[in-house]
Each structure stands twice: as C-alpha cells, then as structure tokens.
Amino acid sequence: MAVGIAVFFYLLRQNAPYGRHVRPGWGPTLDNRLGWFLMEIPVVVVFLTVLLWEKPPVSAYVWLFSSCFLFHYLYRSIVFPLRLRTTGKRMPLVIVLSAICFNFVNGFFLGYYFAHFAEYPSEWWTDARFWSGMALFWLGLGINWQSDNILIRLRKPSSTGYAIPRGGLFGKVSCPNHFGEILEWTGFALMTWSLPALAFAVWTVANLAPRAWAHHRWYRETFADYPGERRALIPYVL
Ligand code: NDP
C-alpha cells in the first residue's frame, strides 16, 4: 500500500505511457493487444496456483470471492484484448513488465490469503459488509463494462482515432470505466474484509485516478466543444 501511494504521486507527474499517452523514449514496444494479454493473464495463473497449491479451499465464501475475481480477470485478459480496436498500436514493454510484476504480487497475496487465512462465519452473507460489498462489486463491474463498450464502439474496426464519448456515465465524467473499476475493487475489499483486497483497491486508485485526470485534461485540450460540466472521475465531485 505504501508503494501504491508513492506510485500515485509519481503518476500525477508522469502519465503512464500507453493508449493516448504513449510517447517515444520508453524503450522497446509490443503490440497493444498482445501487451494486454501478457499483462493480465499472470494474475489468473498465479492466483489459482497459490489458491490450490496445498488443497482446494472448503469455504463456499472463498470460492464465491475467487469466482468474482477470476470472472473479472478472465474477461480482462482474454475477451477485452480481443475486442479492442487498436490495430497497429503499440505499448512499451516496460508498462507490460511493471503490470506483470504487480499482477504476480497481487495474485500471490490474494491467493495466499484465501488459501491460508480467510475465515468467514456461515452467516457472513447477512453482514452489511458482505452484501454492500457484493452490490458495489457488480455495480462497478457493470459501469466498467458499459463504459469500455461505449469507448470500443466509438471506433470503426480498423480506425484508431479519438472522439468525444457520450452515453452512460460519460454524461457525468470523462472516465467512468476507471470509476467503475475503483468501485469494483472497493466492493471486493469490503465483501472479503481482507488486507490484500484493501491493498488491491488502494493500488487501483493509485493507478487509475491520475490516469483519469490526465485523460480529462487531454479531452479538454483536444476538443474545443468538450462538455464543460463533466468531471474527471467521480460524478459531481472530482
Ligand atoms: P482507456 O479509457 O484509456 O481506453 C480504453 C479503450 O478505449 C482503449 O482501447 C482506447 O484506445 C479506447 N478509447 C479510449 N477513449 C477513447 C476515445 N475517446 N475515442 C476512441 N477510443 C477511445 O482505458 P485504459 O486503457 O486505461 O484501461 C482499460 C481498462 O483496464 C479499463 O477498464 C480500466 O479500468 C482497466 N485498468 C485497470 C487497472 C487497475 O489497476 N485495476 C489499471 C489499468 C487499467 P487507445 O488505447 O488507443 O487509447
């Protein structure tokens, strides 16, 4: 979490160089969609390996939380890259390597926690932390998917330009996909009530809040007719 907070301040000064913020000077690059697959698939492998290393967990809650986590990451590592319209675009290898490092650590901590420490009483489903966290997780995932779908459909299959996104929560913020992702992992931390999931939520904010502010500034500088009432990340607030 401490490293995540340091990264947050670093990213406020230095936009992560992928997508619209890609620029020369970051070393070798690779295909954008391949990059997404290579960045994200390790977390699935590491998480499952650590979770199942000794014996499969017996707690139904652990299976439920693990399924939520894997559902997100199987989509993100396999389906999402296949759907992206970024033909010919590249991302720096250093971004891929740093995301792989993060995903190794995150997958290990969460898998190890669920395999060795997680204990939930049988009535955990009646606890406000469980159901509010679960609701937040699925609400966040819905907002994230809806917003990414709108962004992906802004382009024709072979084009790579940018347009002003409209619809869904884009009426309120520039980056509802990032807002949804933050809600998702905040909900996950709440329902699992665990330190590694809290660390993951902190890291998600550290990565995505600076990116949302950078995107917001970029939209305002790029489009003279960009809607002035839109916030960057949190509707009506930020
Ligand atoms: P972006 O919003 O930057 O881009 C998403 C996709 O939409 C990209 O293919 C992008 O193309 C395209 N796109 C974005 N804006 C426009 C526009 N105005 N017009 C046309 N196309 C557009 O998202 P990120 O790349 O930052 O993240 C992708 C997903 O991964 C998000 O759901 C995010 O929440 C998640 N993520 C999660 C992290 C975490 O820590 N949990 C960290 C990073 C991402 P292009 O690439 O060419 O710009």
Give the key terms.
single chain, 7 helices, mainly alpha, 238 residues, 64% helix, two-stranded antiparallel ribbon, binds NADPH dihydro-nicotinamide-adenine-dinucleotide phosphate
Molecular structure report:
The protein has 238 residues and is mainly α. The protein contains seven helices and two strands. The chain is globular and about 55 Å long. NADPH dihydro-nicotinamide-adenine-dinucleotide phosphate binds at residues 19-20, 84, 86, 89, 144, 148, 151-152, 154-155, 160, 162-163, 165, 177-178, 181, 204, 207-208, 211. NADPH dihydro-nicotinamide-adenine-dinucleotide phosphate is lined by residues 19-20, 84, 86, 89, 144, 148, 151-152, 154-155, 160, 162-163, 165, 177-178, 181, 204, 207-208, 211.
Outline type: globular
**Helix proportion:** 55-70%
Kindly provide the radius of gyration, computed on alpha-carbon positions and rounded to a whole number of angstroms: 18 Å
Query: What string, H for helix and E for strand, traces the elements in order?
Result: HEHHEHHHH
Strand composition percent: under 5%
The biggest beta sheet is recorded as: 2 strands, antiparallel
Q: Which ligands accompany this protein? A: NADPH dihydro-nicotinamide-adenine-dinucleotide phosphate
Unreliable spans are none
Multimeric organization: single chain
